[in-house]
Design brief:
Blueprint lengths: L17 E12 L2 E9 L9 E7 L5 E8 L6 E10 L10 E10 L3 E9 L7 E2 L16 E8 L3 E8 L2 E7 L6 E6 L11 E10 L6 E9 L9 E9 L4 E3 L7 E2 L7 E5 L9 E5 L14 E2 L6 E8 L2 E8 L7 E12 L14 E8 L6 E9 L2 E8 L4 E8 L12 E5 L6 E9 L2 E6 L4 E6 L8 E7 L3 E11 L4 E2 L1
């Protein structure tokens, strides 16, 4: 356990020390989920990037491993992905684990390179022909390759270039050919540079019908503040992506402020699409409180699609493996909540899971929970039936003076069926993640309350609300071994 200061999470992934940002190289192989990440081993500030490395057998408990990739003569090691080369197309060896990443040199020179491992990611060899894909002269940004094997029999690379995603194909991970592009300032949010793409196919409502989903990190202009993760739904023909929505449609994976650079695991053994993001925001990532480490990751989320009146939309659910952390459990049902109700006066904790179902009345102004409650501190999570808004307000959540825009309220529009509002909330020492409507609306925010602020309150404003059911679990710490 690495909890050497009170704001280090109990069960969210953090580096052993110093700076961490984007998750990289997510791949499953021989019983282990590999997590690589952007890492600066010399400082709690962003700097000379390496790839940190950890492994897990359940996506909950992690073992930290030595740094996987170090800077070299071609530059520092920016974001990328990892695959298992099952057919040895690159010739590196049987079932080689291959990292495809961006080399960065001064002057904003970015190129794509390879490294491979033949011992389950413990040691790495850089490809002697690096880089394998050079930055075009007219392209200011050219980074963050996400690679997967397509059923047509070739590798596909999604690559961020300004406000465009470029697609390349290759027979062997070494020789790449440009095959298509998407974006070019015409689609989605372009409030900042596009980064960290991911591309995958999902079933719609569990049926044989599928769509392709393209996720993209946007450095600015998100639905909350600063950076965020948007997504597109459409088709992919093995060479390029086509959106099925109007060009001005903007879809956000998370409506909070702190879910960025999201990536999903390759070769997940149950065929699930599991995604994790950097729990931070470029607007203030370098100034949030830090002692010996800075940066955390979200909970892993299982993805699917559901059909709505507006089209297919992303659904995110916390993975069931997280239930292994559950400790003491308390349950309530069929409670009428009136203003001033103090049903949870004996509940305290810095690591909690809350599952609630409310019957909403349109006459009620707002209802929900206040968590991490202390003297003049609380984070409010709730629903506004008049506006059909799920919200999280961290205006009084604790430390916020490091950024003028940190304190505030973040919203996700959501129309609950039959007025039934579900809230699935994960509280950790320095973050809150909220899943509502079976994962159709998601909010993620980091917070910095005092260690003593551990209370939980139910609230309603403007009338009574029915609490159909409520389960609260104390969550045990995950294991982070070194």
């Amino acid at each position: 356990m690495l909890r050497n200061n009170p704001s280090r999470p109990c069960y969210h992934f953090t580096p052993p020390s110093n700076w961490m940002n984007d998750p990289n190289g997510l791949v499953y192989y021989q019983g282990e989920y590999h997590l690589f990440y952007q890492y600066h081993p010399a400082s709690t500030d962003w700097g000379t990037m390496h790839w940190g490395h950890a492994v897990s057998r359940d996506l909950v408990n992690w073992q930290h491993l030595p740094i996987a990739l170090y800077p070299d003569e071609h530059g520092t090691i920016f974001s990328g992905s990892a695959v298992i080369d099952w057919q040895n197309t690159a010739g590196f060896g049987k079932e080689a684990m291959v990292a495809v990443f961006t080399h960065y040199r001064e002057g904003n020179r970015q190129s794509q390179s390879l490294a491979y491992s033949l011992d389950q990611g413990r040691t790495w060899t850089k490809y002697r022909g690096n880089p394998v894909l050079h930055q075009p002269d007219a392209t200011p940004d050219f980074r963050d390759p996400k690679v997967f094997w397509h059923t047509e029999g070739h590798w596909v690379m999604s690559l961020a270039a300004g406000d465009t995603i470029l697609f390349h194909t290759s027979p062997n991970l070494i020789n790449w050919t440009l095959s298509g592009s998407f974006g070019s300032g015409e689609y989605g949010s372009t409030g900042g540079v596009w980064e960290t793409p991911d591309l995958f196919e999902l079933c719609v409502d569990g049926s044989p019908e599928t769509r392709w989903v393209l996720t993209v990190g946007v450095q600015g202009g998100s639905t909350a503040i600063g950076s965020g993760t948007q997504y597109f739904v459409g088709s992919f023909d093995g060479r390029t992506f086509t959106s099925e929505n109007p060009k001005d449609t903007v879809l956000w994976a998370d409506h909070g402020a702190d879910y960025y650079a999201a990536q999903s695991w390759s070769d997940e053994p149950a065929g699930r699409r599991i995604m994790i993001g950097w729990q931070n925001n470029w607007l203030y990532s370098g100034v949030i409180p830090a002692a010996t480490w800075r940066g955390s990751l979200s909970l892993p989320r299982q993805l699917s699609l559901t059909q709505t009146a507006q089209g297919a939309r992303l659904v995110q659910q916390p993975i069931p493996e997280l239930r292994s952390l559950r400790g003491r459990h308390q349950h309530w049902n069929n409670e009428t909540i009136v203003p001033g109700t103090d049903l949870l006066s004996d509940i305290k904790g810095e690591a909690l899971e809350i599952i609630a179902e409310f019957q909403a009345d349109a006459a009620v102004e707002r209802f929900g929970f206040r968590v991490r409650v202390g003297t003049d501190e609380f984070t409010t999570i709730g629903f506004d039936p008049r506006q059909n808004n799920l919200f999280m307000d961290r205006s009084h959540a604790g430390q916020s003076g490091f950024c003028n825009d940190f304190a505030g309220t973040h919203l996700a529009s959501f129309d609950p069926p039959h007025g039934i509002v579900q809230l699935h909330i994960f509280i950790d020492c320095a973050s809150v993640e909220v899943f509502s409507g079976d994962g159709k609306a998601v909010l993620t925010d980091i917070i910095f309350p005092s260690e003593q602020s551990q209370g939980v309150e139910l609230f309603t404003e403007g009338g009574t609300v029915t609490l159909n059911s409520l389960d609260i679990y104390q969550l045990n710490p995950a294991e982070f071994l070194t």
